[in-house]
Predict the structure.
Amino acid sequence: MKIIKTVEQWKENYSLIKNYKIGFVPTMGGLHEGHTSLIRKSIEENQITVVSIYLNPTQFNDKNDLLTYPANFEDDCKILDKLNVDFVFAPTYDVIYPDNYKYVISEKEFSKLLCGATRPGHFDGVLTVVMKLFNIIKPNNAYFGEKDYQQYKLLEGLVKAFFLDVKLIPCPIIREDSGLALSSRNRKLSKEGIKIASKIHQIISSDNSLEDKENMLINAGFTIDYITQIEKRLYVAAFLEGVRLIDNVELK
Ligand code: PAF
């Protein structure tokens, strides 16, 4: 497994593998089974798999959330090495933002709803960094988890809007047996918090009305950011022990 830190280094390696099918899994580190399921799929479906680890500051509107993001580069590399990933792309801010974030990709509608409503600028940061990563890595396929369903839909729009030559592969949410969607942020919860957090999925996938679901979450101890149905999907973001958790389910 090669660790690549700069665009120049990647270009040298890319020139040797550009005729292979390249799968790409962008991450911010703090790897868990949700990420490894994407990586395994990429390894199955491509000849080369590249994983990026870049804790992208431009998508954090809350400094404290960025500073306390639970990721450890050495631990993540051990996981990736075991999985037989070919390349890890781990750039610094200066590598990704030579423009110091003067150039930004924005979407004007869906990005303003749900997570975008309370995290101003969040999706600008996501769309901009993913566009940069796609332009650098030039993957054939890129893998994203459906836990961040709004992010996935916005990236799908980005690919269409800018005629990007990459296929996005959405991958199902990986859950604990309790139903809790895997997330790096779960590591910030106490043992008791983990138990309560698993109620999100139980509640949103129950047969109750939207209003009842909201009240059930509040009674379980969550502070609701939003619980919203758009088309046939129910989206929720809620705080527990100061940790922001998101989930979504497709409604029948
Ligand atoms: O989903 C994530 O981990 C991030 O938003 C992504 C896609 C790696 C961009 O920083």
Q: What stands out?
A: Strands lie at 2-4, 22-27, 48-53, 87-89, 141-145, 167-171, 223-230, 233-240, 243-250. The two ends are 43 Å apart (CA to CA). Residues 26-28, 56, 59, 126, 129-130, 148, 151 surround pantoate (CB under 6 Å). The mean pLDDT is 98.
